[in-house]
Amino acid sequence: MSNSLTTERGKPAALGATVDDDGVHFAVYSENADEIHLCLFDDAAGTQETDRLPLTGRDGGTHYGFVPGLKVGARYGLRAVGKWAPEEGYRFDYSKLLADPYAVQLDRPFVYTPVLTAPPERDLDSAAFMPRAVVMDLARDAKPMPFQAPGFTYEMSIRAFTQRHPDISTELRGTVAALAEPKLLDHLQKVGIDTVEFMPLAAWIDEGHLLNYNLTNAWGYNPITHMAPDPRLAPGGFAEIRRTVEAMHERGIRVLLDVVFNHSGEGSELGPTICYRGLDNLLYYRHPEGQPEFMLNDTGTGNTMATHKEPVARMFIDVLRTWVQAAGIDGFRYDLGTVLGRLPDGFSHDAPFFKMVAADDVLKDRIHVGEPWDVGPGGYQVGNFPPPWLEWQDRFRDDVRKFWKGEDGMIGALATRMAGSADLYNHDGRKPSAGVNFIAAHDGFTLADLTMYVEKHNEANGEDNRDGHNENHSWNNGVEGMTDDPAIIEARGKDIRALLATLLVSRGNPMIVAGDEFGRTQGGNNNGYAQDNEITWLDWENADQRLIEFTGKLAALRKAHPALNTDRFLTGETLPGKDIPDVMWLREDGNEMEEGDWNDPSRRFLGMSIYSAQDDPDVESERAVIYVNGSHEDAVVMLPPPREGHAYQLYIQSDWPDLEPRRVDHTVELIVKARSVFVMLEETA
């Protein structure tokens, strides 16, 4: 051995590897391990173990020690000494090299092998198959942008977004660094994006069953070390990510990071031992009451992290702080976020994790977006996250899809969603911006595939098309899948533009998935998690440039006009000191809708007169009139009279994406085209 360890010095409060002037401090948390051993490896290839040093310092559940002379770049792993008694929940296995949960860099990706699942009696050492953590001294002075609601959000798989772009060099494709290239930043600005939401960057492992199909995990929702970026996405580590985030900030674009704190890639009790299971299975995971040999599976992935326990919640708080301070991340989206509020007796918005975020000086002013559901009992919690958390809004997704599909009785639901979903968020001081509205997300059909496929087509995933959602509320305009029929192609294009327009004129934060602004398709695959190939990679060469222009036009109009972006619920009430209500729901004849209209299951037409009253007396209040025609027939419409001295200007006609704004005479009948959205603004005549 070439190194020694001392406990005369140590930093038990600083978990992970902490660099000092003359060595490195190590600290690991495990309440039930007898000992934790630090394994050091050679600097050249990291294959040869040079030292195995017990962390003999103990402070409660923290095992710690100091290694003099060790420097940045040193490679290490951990082994835990303890009882192997699965029936009691103890799964300590000294033959397994373990990743440090607080690692901030790895020297290689995680790769699944059956050796990782072998029980201790087989004595199969896993070191040859495990990445090494790398000691780093991260600069933690990055500056996120000031807090603001995310606005127009762009969910992005970095690999899928960059892998086929013709202007990105081969060596940069698939990496975070590619996103700092001017061509990609130009595209984001052209579309009008306010916030980019990165799908997970934390180091993940492929699910074991994918080996049988010669597939790999394309999305990254199977993490191990939550602080360490995956080397496949960010070979330059935090420095690479920070440069890209700063490049986006220079363009005025915020960056959210999708984090997966609900489960780990270790899977069920039959899964691999890589990190948490080997360090302290009873601590880090939840188990069914009275059955510690099994894993509680509120996530559908085989395990559930015990975020209700202070050490686990604290670890995830430290993860978030690291991404903010070392990379400048502006906020986070939490996969299956209901798990974060789960206590032994159910979900609570007073759960420890929520309280710790609210009290943390680094995190309290960041953006926090929960995916407010999991698959466990009482897992659907849309509208119930604590303010100021935001939430993904699947009710918006489903109601808007059902309306445009042509289902009966959807007018009331459509109006509720477009008005900001007060039924979900108008409590505890929340606003429409508490909801992140979307029609398509990474999980499910693409926006284009909604108009091309009635059924999912996941055959390439190797599970006989059993995986993925079955209730997609989609339609195909007459032919399943691709077609050369120009009429069907045109009908699909109209539907895509109508869906985008509905999204971008609704109250709340609109979100699209990368590529939906130019008509990307996954060939009907609605569960592309295992398709790291042309199925999910964006086809830039065949991008629909007219659709890109149209999306950018919608985003610019929304951003420029308070009538389309004011963060207030639409109530139908006349605001104090104003002469018209904030919204009137209109029939085709220009009069307000009555009870019979709302209860007509066949109604496919909705008109909205939106009045945005300004608090500043020097800023004129705005009025917009929006018509949504989900019918396959044109509608003959009379506009409501404009205010005195004003006239209507038609800005958006979704069936005619190249429309130049034009004046509309309110005394003349207006033809609102079938399957379209019209947006007019009242302007000074």
Question: What would you note in describing this structure?
Answer:
The protein has 685 residues and is α/β, with parallel strands linked by helices. Among the domains are: 16-134, Immunoglobulins (Immunoglobulin-like, Sandwich), CATH 2.60.40.10; 564-684, Immunoglobulin-like. It contains 14 helices and 30 strands. The strands form eight sheets. An eight-stranded parallel beta barrel has the order 11-12-15-16-19-20-21-22. A six-stranded antiparallel β-sheet has the order 23-24-25-30-27-28. Helix 5 (310-327) runs parallel beside helix 6, helix 7 (394-405) crosses helix 8 (411-418) and helix 11 (486-504) runs parallel beside helix 12. The radius of gyration is 27 Å and the shape is elongated. The model has no long low-confidence stretch (mean pLDDT 96).
Features:
Immunoglobulin-like; elongated; 21% strand; alpha/beta; 8-stranded parallel beta barrel; 6-stranded antiparallel beta sheet; 685 residues; 30 strands
Biggest β-sheet description: 8 strands, parallel, barrel
The pLDDT mean sits at 96
Strand content: 15-25%
Total helices: the number is 14
Distance between the termini: 85 Å
Low-confidence stretches: none
Shape: elongated
Radius of gyration: 27 Å
How many E strands?
Answer: 30
The named CATH superfamily of the domain at 564-684 = Golgi alpha-mannosidase II
Name of the level-1 CATH class of the domain at 564-684: Mainly Beta
The CATH topology of the domain at 564-684 comes to: Immunoglobulin-like
CATH architecture of the domain at 564-684: Sandwich
Structural class: alpha/beta
**Major sheet: arrangement of strands:** 11-12-15-16-19-20-21-22
In helices, the fraction of residues equals: 10-25%
